[in-house]
Design goal:
Order of helices and strands: HEEEEEEEEE
Number of domains: 3
Distance between the termini: 96 Å
Shape: rod-shaped
Largest sheet: 5 strands, antiparallel
Mean pLDDT: 83
CATH architecture of the largest domain: Beta Barrel
Strand content: 25-35%
Strand order of the largest sheet: 3-6-5-4-7
CATH topology of the largest domain: Elongation Factor Tu (Ef-tu), domain 3
Structural class: alpha+beta
Radius of gyration: 33 Å
């Protein structure tokens, strides 16, 4: 009889241990259902609904670090030839202007423009947030000792051409060669 009770007790203990292990497994599985971002930041977007089934690799949320924003600037396809990686950029957020540098130029043209990524290096103005519309000015080149004059409407860009100058010798206008540079900004 004692042997029967001992064997029953051992079986009950084994069953209890199995149930404890199953409960611990379910707790771990439930803990794994909670999402934690890999970075501290602001939750921007959650494209899935609670209870929705997803496949591995599905984007479940988008988190942005507010202090580490970048700008995406669309440049017309006719002007992208002048843009290069590393060029300085001024980005106007409408709350202030922040400096940056071109870090990437998209190889594809989409709807007549090319996407250019700008890494912001200055302190962000108050109110700067992800997906904010901005304006940007890319410095193509810096020229010193240059005279800025108006350009005739049909003047071809970046070519040497003869033009009448307003400077005169003896009261007469002189025809002098003029080198037209790039437009002031993109």
């Amino acid at each position: 009889m004692k042997q029967l009770v001992d064997s029953q007790l051992a079986a009950d203990r084994a069953r209890l241990e199995q149930l404890r292990n199953a409960a611990a497994l379910r707790r771990r599985q439930a803990d794994n259902l909670q999402l934690r971002a890999g970075v501290a930041g602001v939750l921007q977007q959650v494209p899935v609904q609670e209870g929705q089934q997803v496949t591995p690799g599905t984007n479940l949320a988008r988190v942005a670090k507010p202090g580490e924003l970048m700008a995406e600037v669309r440049i017309p396809e006719t002007q992208i030839k002048d843009v290069a990686i590393g060029q300085p950029v001024k980005v106007d957020t409408r709350n202030g202007i922040v400096s940056g540098r071109v870090t990437r130029i998209d190889p594809a043209v989409l709807n007549g423009s090319v996407l250019v990524d700008v890494e912001l290096s200055g302190e962000l103005p108050p109110g700067a947030r992800p997906d904010l519309s901005v304006d940007a000015s890319i410095e193509i080149e810096r020229l010193s000792d240059v005279l800025y004059v108006g350009r005739p409407a049909l003047w071809p860009g970046r070519r040497r051409k003869s033009a009448c100058s307003s400077w005169s010798r003896g009261g007469r206008a002189l025809r002098v060669p003029v080198q037209q540079g790039a437009p002031r900004s993109i």
